[in-house]
Amino acid sequence: MSVPSATQSDADKLLRRNRELSILNTIAAALNREINLAPALQTALMQVAELFNLHTGWIFLRHEATHEFYLAAAQNLPPALADEACLLMEGSCTCLNSYQVGGLDHRDRANVIICSRLEGLLTGTNGLRYHASIPLYAQQKPLGVLNVASEEDHWWLLSPDDLRLLHTVGDLLSIAIERARLFDKSTQLGIVEERNRLAREIHDTLAQGLTAVTLKLETVDALLEMQANPDQIRQTVQQALALTQENLEEARRSVLDLRAAPLEGRNLPEALGRLTQDFAESSGLAVNFEVTGGQRPLPLRVEVGLYRIVQESLNNIAQHAQASHIEVWLLITPNQISLGLEDDGVGFEPSAVPEGRFGLLGLNERVRLLGGQLQLESSPGNGVWVEVTIPLS
To answer: Is residue 335 part of a domain?
Structure first.
């Protein structure tokens, strides 16, 4: 017996609704597992790629302070974009320009756009020319754009239901972005509160300890005037030395905990630009600094660590390299940071570093604490090339 068409239609509608709920539940659950922004974005891209069979995707986010766009996450990029990061990470493009003037703000049809970053390329595109763009907002506040594409370019045949579902995924993603940013802000507030606590602790411990040392030294001075027993004077001096040592250790601990940021309110590219400029002026060396992907926010400890690495490397070059030109570059992608320095100095043999030269040991230690890797190439007469890679996961 055949099924009435109305009943079949209801069954198809029910299956479609179940599929939609399953997709939304899977993506919502994945996003809820992530508090930090980077893994949340990557999770969303992976889920969209799997559930919609849209193999390639990337997310541009709008920096809260500068309002510049940066590449925040990417999935299965074609070689032309994966190998040449600056093509996707720098400058404006059709979708971002359209987003800024409200050209993507409709949910009833696909925002099908010819990718201006791929348009002029002959190879390495994997056949990709178009992508669908989903605008991301949080209560009218612009957050960024989700771009999705497929090598088969079948996405333009998405049904109205699938299109609506993609926009709903964009809404879920927007909520996750706002939550992650609020979490980051609360973390920064916690850092400020911790610094205030450390300031109070320094006052309560170091100030009192130094007062105790002062009293001991005053006692020694009085005993000397009285020509007291030398053993008594020596005992008091030893007590003062012990207190001084305790306060020195307390000072070191407080400084390490405080982690006073050397960036002075700048982001890493700005701070490195200022550092290299000041170094060039003071040393007389030619320093060229280039940055790609510099709008992407980074954890404070990573920024401080990389800043110190450049600072120490420049000092080492000034002391030992006899160089005339230095190249410094910073590349920030969704997955990692690459920081490099190259000079045209006298170079050295890495396997035969003289004793007492602790520069390389210090660099390796800083990179290790950031969870990264350091590569170094040099030989006598051929300068030094150093690259540090830090994963953003």
So the answer is: yes
Phi, psi of 134 (to 5 degrees): -110, 115
Q: How many domains does the chain have?
A: 3
Tell me the per-residue pLDDT of 343-371, one tens digit each, with 9 for 90 and over.
999 988 887 765 545 467 778 888 888 89
Does one domain contain both 130 and 171?
Answer: yes
Strand-pair category, 286-292 with 325-332: parallel
Task: Give the confidence band of 338 by pLDDT, cuts at 50, 70, 90.
Answer: very high
Supply the pTM of this predicted model.
Answer: 0.67
* Structure tokens given for 364: 């390796």
CA diameter of the chain: 120
Sheet strands side by side (includes 69-75): 69-75, 56-62, 141-149, 130-138, 112-114
Q: Which residue has the tokens 């030992």?
A: 320
Mutual angle of helices 230-258 and 160-202, in 10-degree steps: 170
CA separation for the pair 290, 273 (Å, rounded): 9
The neighbouring-strand residues paired with 74 are 58
